Amino acid sequence: MRVLSTDWPPAATRRLWLRIALLLAVLLLTVQWAFMATTISGNSMSPTLRDGQMALVFTQAYRFSPPQRGDLVVVSTEKDFLVKRVIGLPGDNVAIHDSKTFVNGAQLDEPYLKLNGRWQVDEGRLGPSRYAIVGDNRSGAQGSSLLAVVSRDRILGKLVYY
To answer: Is 100 known to be catalytic?
Structure first.
């Protein structure tokens, strides 16, 4: 007479499923640690980003290297999170004349700009760990797309999917 095993599922199968579950848990925690989802609010980044559009932020992008000119970044303010483009790096002289950006005296190539206005911003030098950020929609009043200087610690991450 043959005795059937009561070990169902087999121990090897249970170990395999336990390993898969552990791997998925580690992967999920890593993704939650490294990425943040956000929804674009407003038109200051138009036409690059639309109001209501979902975006993914890589929060660890600047852990080992600094933000670069042209990066789309999420910046923390006292009240909100903003998505803006980096146009000036620490030590740069930045100015805007007729919505054309000048960095260290040379006009910045900004192929993403489709909506220009008549912005005028006098030249200023960025201090250490300071970045100039601005929205891509420069067709309205100067304050509508916010040209700001922010410290590095206010930059939470880089938009990687939008």
So the answer is: no
Contact 137, 145 (CB under 8 A): yes
Active site residue 44: yes
Q: Which of 99, 57, 63, 85 is closest to 148 using CA atoms?
A: 85
Euclidean distance between CA atoms 98 and 59, whole angstroms = 34
- E runs forming strands in 61-129: 72-76, 81-88, 93-97, 100-103, 106-107, 120-125
55-68 pLDDT, tens digit each = 999 999 999 999 99
Domain ranges of the chain: 37-161
The CATH number of domain 37-161 is 2.10.109.10: yes
Candidates 41, 84, 139, 144; catalytic one = 84
Retrieve residue 122's tokens: 């006098």
Radius of gyration of the chain (CA): 23
pTM score over 0.85: no
Selected catalytic residue, list 44, 99, 145, 158:
44
